[in-house]
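Table S2 (text version). Query chain:
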Amino acid sequence: MLTRLSNELYTAIMQANFSKRQRKILDLVIRMSYGCGKKFALLRPMNFELVGIHKTDIGQELEHLSRAGVLFIDDERITLNKDYEQWQVGLASSFCNGGKEWKVSDH
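Corresponding structure-token output:
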């Protein structure tokens, strides 16, 4: 199966300053939503152990990603906010592609 995600959104994810743990969370949410042909993922804390995050640690990370406007969380229903301009995260660094810079807003 193919996980369809716009290049623009994927670039925003690559450029954002997410921790390794937060990136694993995003990858799982994307895989279990878009990768399954849905706009949201149904995930319980224990499901995050699939990507190496213990269920006792996931709450804090999900809360942070929710407060930063990256994820919308309604109980077990988790949705990636595709409007990355609303994300309250900084940029990791500039990305260059054949002399062209790719940019997203730094909040």
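Notes on Table S2: The CA atoms of residues 2 and 9 lie 16 Å apart. DSSP finds three helices and five strands in the chain.
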